[in-house]
């Protein structure tokens, strides 16, 4: 246990910054936290100035590099779509079903290992865990450019899923342990916007690398895998010095700044400020929580659509009559628009605290976009539909993760929940990778119809249902119907109830 934790372990929680969430008539007494506050005695303006400097320091140290890592991660898992239109399937003598199987197997291993990775991240430390998995998936990525048949590509894609499983849920969980709920959404959006940038950048990069066709006896698609894999290995090694540990151990913070981070989390009523040792009870608390499965349904809707879109967008555009290089380049603008929209929605959701409503409204864009793809054969209408599809899918990924994180409290419980939510969503990549079949060219109606159903039923419908259930639970807590959960418990025991505290109000 760190010196900071020893000094704060018996400290009771601060008064919430948003006291309107407290039960009516409840008063928060002065706490011992104020005694250990490095800004004690300062004016509100001076404290706010310290907080602004701290937030800027966190943003500069954490967000850019982590976003860069996710850009590489998403690039490495989806560049197979760019390789396909450059001759991968023909050169490896694969049928359409075999190509789709290489897409599917990634999601099986990826989803299976995701619920476990956040526990490993916490126990091994981010500065150790993330570089290890990056080097491993970089090696795997490189080998994809050396395979000669279907079975070799299948093996490589399986291990790529295993290695990449820890990054996306891990980083979202990690960031949620640094920021207040009202600050987390835009950071998660900036982090995830790297996926949209990866799609945009990936098309440009693939078009450039494919020009190496024939060098060293390798086809252009093989060089896409080899060069991007080698780059991932280098970045993974550098990440040992660039990825920081959790707040109580981060070396770039002064002792006073560490205390400020934990004070801010306590003020936000987050158990992330506390030291926890892993217990299976945290795992089962997540499994038994209805919110886990509601958010899994929502994430299923946007993530299943995301992978179908990102894996097959180059192929969809190619069917509009463009050659492989042009198709790769035309995939850039929809991703660029999605990146901007993702950050904007993250900002709006943080300001309004209406994450569910943002999901509901944004998903309508995707529903309209895929309706256009399904209903029209005109190239212009279909290309416009890809724009709306990207705008309706990408922002909901980051927003759903933020929404789930805001409503689950407890360090390990939140980590396990995010692992389940993201893992279940990614398992639907198995469906996504099999719905755009070669025999359905050029309209791909079964594929577009399936994505439309995912957006309508799971993303839109799931968001509406979850928001109603959360609002109903908040009403019960305001009316005192959950007060009995805290009866007979000490203040410390009540705090450790996490999101089952009667005064914990859900984000809608």
From TrEMBL:
Keywords assigned: Membrane, Transmembrane, Transmembrane helix, Transport
CDD domains in UniProt: MFS_FEN2_like
Listed PANTHER family: PERMEASE-RELATED, TRANSPORTER, PUTATIVE (AFU_ORTHOLOGUE AFUA_1G01812)-RELATED
Alphabetical list of PROSITE patterns matching this protein: MFS (PS50850)
Source organism (scientific name): Melanomma pulvis-pyrius CBS 109.77
MF-aspect GO terms: transmembrane transporter activity
Stretches that traverse the bilayer: 100-121, 128-150, 156-176, 188-209, 221-243, 293-317, 329-349, 356-377, 383-404, 416-436, 451-470
Source species, domain of life: Eukaryota
Database matches in SUPFAM superfamilies: MFS general substrate transporter (SSF103473)
Location of region: Disordered: 1-39
Localization: Membrane
One GO CC term, this protein: membrane
Coiled-coil portions: none
Membrane topology label: Multi-pass membrane protein
Main localization (coarse): membrane
Domain Major facilitator superfamily (MFS) profile: 62-508
Protein's name according to its UniProt entry: Retrograde regulation protein 2
InterPro entries cross-referenced by the UniProt entry: MFS, MFS_dom, MFS_trans_sf
Basic and acidic residues composition-biased segments: 1-27
Keyword check for Transmembrane helix: yes
């Amino acid at each position: 246990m760190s010196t900071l934790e020893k000094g704060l372990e018996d400290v009771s929680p601060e008064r919430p910054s948003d006291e309107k969430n407290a039960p009516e008539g409840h008063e928060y007494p002065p706490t011992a936290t104020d005694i250990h506050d490095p800004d004690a005695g300062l004016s509100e303006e001076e404290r706010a100035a310290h907080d602004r400097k701290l937030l800027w320091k966190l943003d500069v140290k954490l967000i850019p590099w982590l976003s860069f890592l996710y850009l590489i991660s998403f690039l490495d898992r989806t560049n197979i779509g760019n390789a396909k239109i450059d001759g991968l399937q023909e050169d490896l003598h694969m049928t359409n079903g075999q190509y789709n199987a290489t897409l599917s197997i990634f999601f099986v291993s990826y989803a299976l290992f995701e619920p476990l990775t956040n526990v490993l991240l916490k126990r091994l430390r981010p500065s150790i865990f993330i570089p290890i998995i990056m080097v491993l998936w970089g090696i795997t990525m490189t080998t994809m450019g050396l395979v000669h048949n279907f079975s070799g590509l299948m093996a490589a894609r399986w291990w790529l899923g295993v290695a990449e499983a820890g990054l996306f849920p891990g980083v979202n969980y990690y960031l949620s342990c640094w920021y207040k709920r009202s600050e987390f959404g835009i950071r998660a959006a900036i982090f995830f916007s790297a996926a949209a940038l990866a799609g945009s950048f990936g098309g440009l990069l693939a078009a450039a690398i494919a020009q190496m066709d024939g060098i060293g006896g390798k086809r252009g698609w093989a060089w896409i895998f080899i060069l991007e894999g080698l780059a991932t290995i280098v970045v993974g090694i550098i990440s040992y010095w660039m990825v920081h540990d959790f707040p109580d151990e981060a070396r770039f913070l002064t002792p006073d700044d560490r205390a400020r981070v934990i004070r801010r989390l306590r003020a936000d009523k987050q158990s992330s400020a506390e030291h926890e040792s892993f217990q299976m009870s945290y795992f089962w608390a997540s499994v038994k929580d209805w919110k886990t499965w509601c958010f899994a349904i929502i994430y299923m809707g946007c993530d299943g659509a995301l992978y179908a879109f990102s894996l097959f967008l180059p192929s969809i555009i190619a069917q509009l009559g463009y050659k492989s290089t042009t198709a790769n380049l035309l995939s850039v603008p929809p991703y660029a628009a999605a990146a901007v929209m993702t950050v904007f929605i993250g900002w709006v959701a943080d300001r309004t605290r209406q994450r569910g409503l943002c999901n509901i409204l944004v998903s309508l864009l995707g529903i309209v976009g895929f309706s256009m793809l399904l209903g029209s054969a005109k190239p212009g209408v279909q290309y416009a539909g890809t724009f709306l599809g990207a705008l309706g899918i990408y922002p909901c990924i980051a927003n759903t993760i933020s929404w789930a994180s805001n409503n689950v409290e407890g360090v390990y419980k939140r980590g396990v929940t995010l692992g389940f939510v993201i893992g279940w969503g990614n398992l639907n990549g198995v469906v996504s990778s099999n719905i755009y079949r070669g025999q359905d060219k050029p309209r791909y109606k079964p594929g577009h119809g399936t994505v439309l159903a995912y957006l309508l039923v799971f993303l839109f419908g799931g968001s509406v249902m979850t928001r109603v259930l959360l609002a109903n639970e908040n009403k019960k807590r305001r009316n005192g119907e959950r007060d009995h959960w805290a009866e007979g418990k000490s203040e410390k025991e009540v705090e450790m109830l996490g999101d089952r505290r009667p005064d914990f109000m859900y984000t809608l």
